[in-house]
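#onboarding

Welcome to the new folks! Below is a worked example of what a typical request in this channel looks like: someone posts a single protein sequence, and someone else replies with the predicted structure as tokens. Don't worry about understanding the tokens yet, we'll cover that in week two.

Example request:
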Amino acid sequence: MASEPSTTALRSHPDLTLIASGKVREIYEMRRNPAHLLFVATDRVSAFDVVLGNPVPNKGAVLTILSKFWFDLLRSEDANIKTHFVAMGLPEEIKAGLPREEIVVFEHRSMVVRRLKMLPIESICRAFLSGSAWSSYRSNGTVNGITLPPGLEESDRLPEVLWTPSTKASSPDEHDENITPEQARKILGPEVAEQIMTLSARIFSLAASYAAIKGIMIADTKFEFGLDDSVSPPAVVLCDEVLTPDSSRFWSAKEYVRGQSQPSLDKEPLRRWLVENGLKGRDGVMMPRHIVNETERRYKDAYERLTGREFDVN
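Example response:
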């Protein structure tokens, strides 16, 4: 069974200070570069808000390399889309303090990003009725307080792309909570909320159009934003990972059938296995080999289909 690549060498590096460790990602301050942060995506995997006991090999590399692909693509399509991305990989001054085997492990799992004031919501765009949105609609005909027409079926395309924000858990032990757009406006202020909603819709439209060419449907995705207050007025900046199997629900257009759940290019096999075995929400569960392999395969498949490149970190 694969073991999680250890971040001990990074945590003990004299030029790095760990400032946040989430379910998947670790964030470090860099002593010689205080305006930037080092993001490291581990191979840890979470489902139903808990972390599994064993990792999915190469998952962190898929998240990091695919995020860079999208950052580059979005900026090439619209120069007004600002992102926090600075550079891929470990800075030279960090490499100098690490053994070669550690550099190999984290080179494709790391990116340098701008240090910004993060906004306290997750910005979720939904084009199809699935997941928690489908559960909410079945219960009361609404999604995040937005009333939808009657008679919709599971996985139906929504009349329009919905902005369905959520709160952002402040620690791995907390859970995100769905909120209405009006609640988001109260948290962020109406002007910033409007900017985030408009920018999210623009990014989603560009990404969905591109993915459609590759035979992929983006059912929903989560964005995170920060504020660059070095300019006036402060600019809204796209942050974190973007349009990955961890933050998005990717469907194969060829396999799409309305009225039922869809096979997704993400950790769907893991979620299904947890539910079928009564393990949903239980912390530290060890995945069997076939679930690990199938989840890794789907992450790589999403990367290769979207980018048109073979996944190779050697």
